[in-house]
Design brief:
The protein has about 90 residues and is mainly alpha-helical. It has three helices and two strands. Strands 1-2 form a two-stranded antiparallel ribbon. The mean pLDDT is about 80.
């Protein structure tokens, strides 16, 4: 299982990315409301989308690190194989 500092660092990165996206989205909304030219609005909207995607991938990556070693119902630790990990990842898409 991932260590607490690694979880904390991942969580901080995720929150920072989402807050950045939130700020970018507020700028997009303000630009649309003020009738700004579409080029910068679309560019900023692409940045919002990218920031959200990166946050999502960080969440997936963090979860997959935790899932590399799974504890079963009897408390035994079982390492996931590549096929199980791939199946888990693809279930998120």
């Amino acid at each position: 299982m991932a260590s607490e500092p690694a979880k904390s660092d991942d969580l901080r990165k995720i929150v920072n990315r989402l807050k950045r996206a939130q700020g970018q989205l507020a700028a997009v909304i303000a630009a649309v409301e003020s009738g700004a030219d579409c080029r910068p609005v679309v560019t900023q909207l692409a940045a919002v989308s990218s920031a959200i995607d990166r946050a999502g991938f960080t969440i997936i990556s963090s979860a997959m690190k935790e899932c590399l070693i799974e504890t079963n119902s009897t408390g035994e630790k079982k390492q996931l194989d590549v096929n199980e990990l791939e199946k888990l990842f693809l279930s998120l898409s």
